[in-house]
Amino acid sequence: MPHALIVDDDPNTRQALAEVIREDGLTCVTAGDLREARIQIVRQMPEVVFTDLKLPDGSGVDLFEDLDPSGVEVIVITGHATVESAVNALKMGATDYLVKPINLQRVKAIVNRIPRAGDLKAEIGNLRGELRRMGRFGLMLGNSTAMQEVYDQISRVAPTAASVLLVGESGTGKELAAQTVHELSLRRKHPFVAVNCGAISPNLIESEMFGHERGSFTGADRQHKGYFERANGGTLFLDEITEMPIELQVKLLRVLETGVFMRVGTTKEIETDVRLVAATNRDPEEAVLDGKLRLDLYHRLNVFPLHLPPLRDRGKDVELLAQGFLDDLNQRYTTNKTFPPESKDALAAYNWPGNVRELKNYVQRAYIMAGAESINTAAVPLQISLSKPSPGTSVTIPFGTSLAEADKQLILATLEQCGGVKTRAAEILGISLKTLYNRLVEYGDSAKAEAATDPNSEKADLDA
């Protein structure tokens, strides 16, 4: 039977928590300060500790040195004014935090996850073994040194409640990484909801995030549950977080700090218990400087930053991934097509600016064009030339140019080199097509000439 320790100098808080925890079948002891807590730990090592950050003789964080971080779940308790301290505690190894006045339903949700922790650790151990044998980790594939570092970071953060910020170029597999974090977490039996913030109209994004009541605006003919409500108990993945409107970022921060939100068209608060994983293909600190990401939200999301390496830095993972994609196609269509050695060499020599997404699309094209058995990459040319840049294809940025202006010059120059084809320019730049369109709208008249030469500039291209 799991054993819990509650450390708080307020006797009413200790009693309320103890009643909830015992109702869920755990044994429980309490302490009013660090000295009493250490005595209880010596008597019996708990599986879970609820500790206030501010105690008469120190901080609840001081207990970390008395506990086995790999075997004990630590939930810190704080007031609204010290949420930042709770976030710091998450970085040090705490698995979750509660804000006073304590929401007892959240306590129940946390306690219900505790008995599964041992099984989860065993699962992570099995996945590490699978990685050594096959180069697989959850939903991810690759055995390069760079990816093994990613796997190790995911295995450490997944069992906790810490927010994760995934940073990497477009196509590096950020959504797969987010799904793997979810599958290895205590929330894996609850929903995983993925949202691309750059693909939702700014006029609708608040309604999509938090839901709306019937009649709250024109066209709202029924009640609509938003992403936070649908992801309750599970994980919410917010891709392209820097494309979320600033005014909505304020509301998102409030939800993360309080655990409550309101549907559009009502003042009734709804509780939510979600683990947030966010992603961006931009440098988040530059996004803060450019006014695309609020600094306070960045700090709240950046509890555990995780960088996904580009495919060009993953060595032989190119061959491993290509073979994996081909194996999937062979299995789906009951074929036995293979890559000859020269095709593997061609794949390894290419820079893959579109990363894993571009490789997957290429393997599918090559599979379709191939004969009965062998795949000839020479018959399916890669989209971007491997030759060195010709004169006139470089961009000179004078010293003192602002980041926003340098960003603009690079985007417009890349679009020109791609003949106005936005899909290709977005791949080279490592951004989504929607993000490229948003940038061009910001640039206004200076980008209209480029758009006019784009044969794919119709709305259908954007929707695709």
UniProtKB/TrEMBL annotation:
Gene3D superfamilies: 1.10.8.60, 3.40.50.2300, Homeodomain-like, P-loop containing nucleotide triphosphate hydrolases. Residues 3-115 form the Response regulatory domain. Residues 140-368 form the Sigma-54 factor interaction domain. GO terms for biological process: phosphorelay signal transduction system; regulation of DNA-templated transcription. GO terms for molecular function: ATP binding; sequence-specific DNA binding. The modification 4-aspartylphosphate is found at D52. Keywords: ATP-binding, DNA-binding, Nucleotide-binding, Phosphoprotein, Transcription, Transcription regulation. This is Regulatory protein AtoC. It comes from the Bacteria.
